[in-house]
Amino acid sequence: MSPAPTTPTPAQKDSSQVRQKEMIARHFDRLADAPGTGARSAYTFVPGNLTELLLSFDVLPVLPEINALQSAMRGKTAEYIAMAEKLGHSEDVCTYVKSDVGMMKSGNVGPTGQRLPSPDLLLLSYTGCFTFMKWFELLREEYHCPVAMLHVPYQADGRITDAMRAYVVEQLRTEVIPKLEAITGRAYDEDRLKALLAQSARAEDDLVWVLQSARHVPSPIDAYFGAVYYVGPIFSAFRGTEDAVHYYRELREEIEERIRLGKGPVTPDGEMDRERFRVVVEGPPNWTSFRQFWKMFADEGAVAVASTYSKVGGVYDLGFRHDPDHPLETLAEYCLGCYTNLNLPTRIDLLTRYLSEYLADGFLINSVKSCNSFSAGQLHILREVEARSGRPGGFIESDLVDPRYFSAANIKNRLESYFQMLDQKRLGAAS
Amino acid sequence: MTPDQQRSALVQRADAIFRDQSLAAVGEWKARTGGLAVGFLPIYVPRELLHAQGVLPVGLMGGRPDLEIIKGDAYYQSYICHLPRSTIELGLNGSYDALDGIVFPAICDVIRNLSGMWQMLFPRVLVHYLDVPQNFDPAIGGAFYRRDLEGLAEALAARGARRLTDDNLRQSIALYNEDRRLVRELYALRRREPWKVPTAELYVVLRAGLLLPVEESTPLFAEYLALAAADASRRPQDQARVLVAGSFCEQPPLGLIKTLERAGCYIVDDDFVQVHRFLRSDIPTDGDPLQRLVEAFLTDAVASPTRYIGDGVKGADLERRLAESGAEGVLFCAPSFCDPALLDQPMAARAAERAGIPWTAFKYAENSAQFQVIREQAGTFADSIKLWSGA
Question: What's the CATH fold of domain B29-167?
Fold first, then answer.
């Protein structure tokens, strides 16, 4: 007798996940409908995004980086990158850019399968990444739309000066806001912006609580792979919205419950039974094999308890919150404080601090070929953090969205050796 | 000595300075003057400001191909360009011991992050990140840049340099105006009569100029200009006129430049050692001299790929250069993994196509040693121009 056919059990989703999915679907519906409704859209970047300002003009944000990573997760980027390289883009440069170019040339169909509108404005928030500037120069040639350039100075000496803040604020006043006024035909409404910023701060409080929940042993969350989902709303189109406030409150309540029940994080194979290793991770994940990559950690019982990638859209755990009483100044401060806008000594300090505050056994650097902003200097970071913390670091190499640079066997090998080494150290310490 | 022999001797002198990676010329200058020497990474820093404070600006452009990279490679993954490796190597092996500081201009993420590494590796020297503005409104980007320059001047003074004064700065601007004027003349002569100014020679002279005080680089340029212009022994050959684009930071090995010339190309414009030509014209010596420096950067700089081109057509500057130089082809010659050059290239290639000028592209590293493939590519390209171009 053959066994009775079984239907797969649908994945259990927390309410916050369902909410996030609905938020994203509604946003992409609005974008798909934009040509008919006349809604305006602006393409912009995650680090230094000015979502509240865009929303105060009812402009819909589109994040090409997020489109690229979503394309990678859907297995589309090999084709997109090949198309861009055929058009003359070098194999050496950022694969987010090439994926975006390929996606545009393939009809600009977004992650939900709907066509994205062409931008009414390219909001070039030049924050923490040189490539952003070239990326939007390239897109401008394709879309022939206005560009608002916002140059955000680098925190080369590890601090924000009055001159930096004033420079960014002046650009917001004279470059960004007038261009938003021009594409929408509406005047800047500071009261509306303040109201949005107040909501941002509420969501940020809860996000920080969620990320810091990983200080518990066992950690109720994975602060690298899992955090990718948690930071989604606040790093993209929803910071400042009521939806984001509800999402983060709900997420916080779910994590509180996990802590109460002593549960570990959810992994691709369900809940983790036993936390064997606590690690801090530096660098963005690989997106083409995201699940496989995550499983390599989860199979070893390794939990990321803190990560720097979850700070690229804002380093809130050091205390920054959007301040509605100083709307433009707070936007400037936010841009200046994004992770990749911090100098290397500050990044090293942050990683060292995470290792101690999150009771981590060690740290791992995923060095991605595409991103010099993150990657240039990471071997130095490795050495310095090891020296300062006394905890071992591991180094793996992959890419953001180019599947050619994800060598699963290699990475798995390295990770297994690294975790074995952590084990040995632990045994050595115990004996 | 014949003019030819004189020119040859001058180039040899320049070559010896250029080849000395331990910066002996800088050490000698310091011993002689007691002044500070401050290095700067590509592409541009306002050398006038340093000079006005009695500081010797020293142009650093990575390492020569014969530099063995031992420690530098331990700091960088394989997919990062070569210049930061050699820079670290030269720093760690003591070659830069004569330097009291380094200025890192904001041109890409690699140089940017290198500034932080330098802070940690060499805590005793001045590290200044020159965050040049991408907003070119004098009241906004200009004000920010001015503050940055004032900060640099203060930092130099704190290390013992003399304070910046308007009179000193005006004097320095005048000296560098003359220095740049001579380089412009050299480039003009090469455009007119490229056989008289082989780029392999010109390049060595310009590189030596990076390591000498302006009081010495200006006479060097003037002498070379006079000797090259007067030389009637070099005769025109049937070579294709090409513009070489993309080599503004990490420099190609001298062997590569020679290879291009031997492959049948007259290089009539290029991006090499661009600090000498980053500003297109003289900086006025009247008025507030610091503001003049700021304005020159905002309004008179070349359209570098590192600079945001907000107004006008992207690539228009390349089209202008092609017209002015009479180039018949473009060689996109960028260092491997150079974001500014390689991300810019598709737009620059379109500009060349708009101008009806053929192009080809290849990459190099500063330590590339094999040029046969490039020689074939450049040679074929030059032949195709000679056979099928309208000229």
Answer: Rossmann fold (3.40.50)
